Predict the structure.
Amino acid sequence: MSRLRTALAAISLAVLAGAAHGECAFDEGYFSRDTYAGKPGVETVVWLADAKEARIITSEHDLVSVKHWACDALGLEARMLVDPDPGDDAALKHKLVGLARLVLGEAELAGFTAAIGTVADLSGTKVDIPGAANMPEFYYIVQRLDGFDVITLKYYYN
């Protein structure tokens, strides 16, 4: 049953990520498979060029979908499927930071971890990242579902 639930959630994740943004100009020289392939904690990366999306399996066996776009601004939406639910908020925050580590640069990561360090409610909110004035819209959402979680980071650069 857990595998079926994981498969259905992964399909839903793919559909949601794929429908997130319309067609925009995009330069694959900026983001590609190589952007994620060498990162710590990444086991497998598949780059879907038409969708401008990376599908990743982490060393902790979480599924990640990272969608990039470039229209009026550069943007990113990353979703992590965590199955099973780790149970406590500290473990879930570890997963949230792991997703951030995968998609953020060093300066943004430091600001993000500082900003959420004292957050008690993991359900999600807009985050002001110190020193990242070029990221005026940065959000995270943690959805606890029936036995698994979906973590989303979403931002744009202007």
